[in-house]
Amino acid sequence: MDHIVTVQDAVTAFADWMEPTDAELDAIEAEMPVIRAEMELLDAQIVVIDRTPTVLDERRIRRARRRVLAAHRDLVNGLAGQTGGAA
């Protein structure tokens, strides 16, 4: 007779100690502007995958790229201010 056993990883996959820490949640929150800007850029790029971009599409992609760069800059400058290091 074979015994049925559970897989330990599956049982403990949602254990309390595996939840994100407050520091990890704060890091995610700090990166949210970058994530949103990257999603906006991806949306703009997806729109023109199967067609020739119009002038308006190109403008939207350029603006989205600038937002991504600005969000990255703000994140890095904010982190540099917290740690006291230079970015």
Can you walk me through this structure?
With 87 residues, the chain is mainly alpha-helical. It is 69% helix and 0% strand. The chain is built from three helices and no strands. The chain has helices at 8-12, 22-47, 55-83. The radius of gyration is 21 Å and the shape is flat. The mean pLDDT is 84.
Keywords:
3 helices; 69% helix
Please state the CA-atom Rg, rounded to the nearest Å: 21 Å
By secondary-structure content and strand pairing, the structural class works out as mainly alpha
The span between the termini is 64 Å
Spans where pLDDT lies below 50 across 5 or more residues: none
* Strands, count: 0
What is the percent of helical residues? 55-70%
Roughly what is the average pLDDT, rounded to an integer?
Answer: 84
The major sheet is characterized as: none
Report strand %.
under 5%
Count of discrete alpha- or pi-helical segments spanning 4 or more residues = 3
Detail the topology: elements first, then pairings.
Elements: H1 8-12, H2 22-47, H3 55-83
Helix pairs in contact: 2-3
